[in-house]
Amino acid sequence: MIKPQRPNPQRAGKTPARSATQPPVRARPRSTLRTGAREAESPTAPTDTSITTSPALSTGRIGGPALADQARAQLEELIVQLELPPGSVWSEVQLSERLGIGRTPVREALQRLEGDHLVRILPRLGVQVTEINVTQQLRLLEVRRVLERLVAQNAARRATPEEREQLLRMADALEGMVDGDVLKFLRYHYEIKRYIAECARNPFAAAAIAPTHAMSRRFYFLHYRRAHDLPVAARHHADVIRAIALGEEARAGAAAESLMDYVEQITRDTVMLKS
User: Fold this and answer.
1) Mean pLDDT of the chain
2) pLDDT in tens, 193-242
3) 67-129 under CATH 3.30.565.10, yes or no
4) Alpha helix (H) ranges present in the chain?
5) I want to staple 159 with a disulfide (CB 3.0 to 4.6 A). Which of 45, 125, 199, 245 is the partner?
6) What does pTM read for this prediction?
7) For 134-274, CATH number?
8) Strand 126-129 with 119-122, pairing
């Protein structure tokens, strides 16, 4: 009688041989790793010195910037600099090739920019950069005026001691950016506004005010090309930041009003000169 042969576990292709080349411990699921990374990191201020105490209600994404965040920042800068002119129409492919970023993150970035009223998505046609409309801009500034005051006063009331120290450093750094590099100024302005909104700890106000800042940056770029008044703009913003840092709510509100008077005036002046 021929006895049946037992399978040889050492043969190539069998499970035991394959397991010998693989690590015995399975990696954690991606979602767990991502959650752990978020818990380990905290938001940092837009300067070399980071703070360890972050606002409880963060308005920004924690950790390194995702591709969609990079695409959004680059596209906004191109719009602000008028390299993507008002009224121009672009395809996702064109913008993806220009940025060197895939179409999916570019599409997500465009959806967010549409929420900021900087672009208009045209189904089956592409995306159009919104026109600069003085009537709409002035209506937008009516909303921004209320929100600037609210956010400044809330931040003055709710910021932590560490955040107040950081805000004072930000004010000094902003006033130091008067060498004519308007793009550097606008990038830093973007980060500071996000940080102040976090200090205010009102995510609803933060979400509402962000689009007003995006549209105002484009107006300021138009204005700056003629006026070159970075020191004036920096002083107005620094006055608000220092009042917040010192916890002076009334002064922060008054400084925000003064800032908005300046913003409204340059908006009117920009359009008059443009026409």
Assistant:
1) 80
2) 999 999 999 999 999 999 899 899 988 888 887 878 899 999 999 999 99
3) no
4) 15-19, 30-40, 67-80, 92-99, 103-115, 134-158, 161-175, 182-200, 203-227, 230-245, 249-274
5) 199
6) 0.73
7) 1.20.120.530
8) antiparallel
